[in-house]
TrEMBL record:
Taxonomy of the source species: Bacteria, Bacillati, Actinomycetota, Thermoleophilia, Solirubrobacterales
Compositional bias (Basic and acidic residues): 1-11
Protein name: CGNR zinc finger domain-containing protein
Domain of life: Bacteria
Provenance organism: Solirubrobacter ginsenosidimutans
Domain Zinc finger CGNR: 153-194
PANTHER family for this protein: BLL6575 PROTEIN
Family matches, as InterPro entries: ABATE (IPR010852), ABATE_dom_sf (IPR023286), Znf_CGNR (IPR021005)
Signal peptide bounds: none
Pfam families: ABATE (PF07336), zf-CGNR (PF11706)
Amino acid sequence: MDERDKRRVGEQIEPGGRPKAPGRLELLQRFVNTHNHEFPDEWDRIGTPEKAQAWLLAKALIGPGDAITDADVTRLRALREGIRALAIANQAGHSAAAASEAIRDVSALAALSVVVDANGRTALQPTGEGVDGAVAMLLGILHEAQLGGDWSRMKACRQCEYAFFDRSKNRSATWCAMAICGNRIKNRAYYRRKRGTT
């Protein structure tokens, strides 16, 4: 994969052509995948106020007049890594206590209210604007996915921690793509075994 394609991973393309998460959960998946720890820090789509503002505006999470500060970037990145840790916990069956605490810390100002549409359907809607509203919207999507059962299928790759939606029947997928991270893990294990026998 060339650099141009790597820069598109998590936004325009999925590793191995894997389908995106369904419905609004795709937005939460995109948020977690604004940065992959195997890529340079400067590729982080929310790594600066300017980048974060552009990304959040493109996703309709903030309005055109909403400014983003360095503190907002720190908060958004902490939320992203907290949600990623929840996806890792889905993958490995680990405790999510530390991730839950981190998310609570950055979400104190993010408020949601229940709204009812003309057909009587309820939904969670942010009451604030700017980063507070964006954080609230993302947490509302997380809440809905947990209630609907889709969240348990949101996982983080065992190798690169890329968030992916596990569509396998037995929910056993462990890598973002077998052809990428799965092969890397298997090749490393093979070479370790080979070194051990020589």
